[in-house]
TrEMBL record:
Ranges where the GIY-YIG domain occurs: 94-176
SUPFAM superfamilies in alphabetical order: GIY-YIG endonuclease
Pfam families (alphabetical): GIY-YIG
Family annotation (InterPro entries): GIY-YIG_endonuc (IPR000305), GIY-YIG_endonuc_sf (IPR035901)
Protein name according to UniProt: GIY-YIG domain-containing protein
Domain of life: Eukaryota
Length: 203
């Protein structure tokens, strides 16, 4: 409570409640005088506050002599515990992700990012890897040179990020974290040097 003493807080609350009650009573009395059955009316004043264990007793003491009823409500709403019931998307259906493709025959791996579904990007990699000449990707070169295969059935989603700039930063970080990276050196040219010392401590 902003480091104020509890006695000061509750004394202030007490004064404020008395002021509110006084103003409310004046208004109610004015309203009652316009009604014929004013003598038969029973007026109840309620104060509703959030329940906090250990503090509720203090509030009871504050309103004890004020002729008011005190009620509490919980801060823990049901929707805090029960989220929307939606089926989780499979890795291949996710968008805006950083992904990792592992080689089945060695510890080499490749990290990339895409804003489209991962399924679409993986399909492009598969189509490209079938090439035997021309402008080959690093995955195609690895497969042709070593006759290795990639684990297309278990492409990992290592991070997800909606914004392109942040997604590229995450991609470069995960490229650096690989043990045997197939990515080009130029893939991390724009990674700020301040990240490098942190990454070195992680290895």
């Amino acid at each position: 409570m902003n480091d104020y003493p509890l006695d000061f807080i509750f004394n202030t609350i007490n004064l404020r409640l008395k002021s509110l009650l006084h103003n409310k009573t004046l208004k109610q009395n004015n309203d009652i005088t316009t009604q014929n059955d004013k003598d038969d009316m029973e007026i109840k004043t309620w104060f509703t506050i959030p329940y906090t264990e250990g503090i509720d007793g203090k509030f009871r003491e504050v309103v004890r002599d004020l002729d008011v009823n005190l009620s509490f409500y919980s801060l823990n709403k049901l929707n805090c515990f029960i989220g929307p019931q939606k089926d989780r998307l499979s890795n291949l259906q996710q968008k805006n992700v950083i992904y990792k493709i592992n080689c089945k025959d060695c510890d080499a791996s490749y990290v990339g990012q895409t804003k489209r579904t991962l399924k679409t990007r993986v399909k492009e990699h598969k189509n490209d890897i079938r090439k035997s000449n021309g402008n080959l990707s690093v995955l195609s070169e690895h497969r042709l040179e070593l006759n290795h295969e990639f684990d297309w059935d278990d492409v990992k989603v290592v991070d997800s990020e909606r914004w392109l700039y942040k997604r590229r930063i995450s991609e470069m970080l995960h490229i650096k974290l690989q043990n045997n990276s197939l990515n080009l050196q130029s893939d991390t040219d724009f990674l700020h040097h301040s990240y490098l010392s942190i990454l070195n401590n992680l290895h």
